[in-house]
Every structure is written in structure tokens, then in C-alpha cells.
Specification:
The chain has 84 residues and is an all-alpha fold. 77% of the residues lie in helices and 0% in strands. The chain contains four helices and no strands.
């Protein structure tokens, strides 16, 4: 009896959570996850004037994903070779 009650409640909870998350929330979550991923790919593929900067930017984006990504695009792109 207790097992079926737990199963019922977990299904109910799952349905409730799915009902709470809408299209807008999924879009925002997608953007929040996509921005750091794109920044990390760009950092790894880029060649920096000072190679230590690459390690620093990777750590900044990993520790502060969204803010670190924005900081990289505002400040860090000027440190990439061939960009001024």
C-alpha cells in the first residue's frame, strides 16, 4: 500500500513540475546553458597573445558561467591574436 502511494505521489510531482516549466522558461534555460558552452568553444579554439590567458578565461567561464562568458566577449576577445 505504501509503495503504490509513493509511486502515485512521484508521478503527480513529475506532472506538476512539467506543468510549471513552460516554453519561455525552457528558452531561458537553453540560452543560459548555451552561452557558456559557445564561449568555452571559442576560448579553446582561439590563440591568445599570452597562453596563460586561455587558462584564466576557461576557469572564469567555468566558475561564473553566464557572467564569465559575457566578460570574455567584452574584455577577453581583445586578448585573442589577430583581434584588435
Amino acid at each position: 500500500m505504501t509503495g503504490s502511494l509513493f509511486l502515485y505521489n512521484s508521478k503527480r510531482l513529475t506532472m506538476t513540475l512539467i506543468g510549471v516549466i513552460g516554453t519561455q522558461e525552457l528558452f531561458i534555460l537553453f540560452i543560459i546553458l548555451l552561452v557558456p558552452l559557445v564561449a568555452l568553444i571559442e576560448i579553446i579554439r582561439s590563440s591568445f597573445v599570452n597562453p596563460v590567458n586561455k587558462i584564466v578565461w576557461v576557469l572564469v567561464v567555468l566558475l561564473l558561467p553566464f557572467i564569465g562568458s559575457l566578460l570574455f566577449w567584452i574584455i577577453g576577445r581583445s586578448q585573442v591574436e589577430g583581434r584588435k
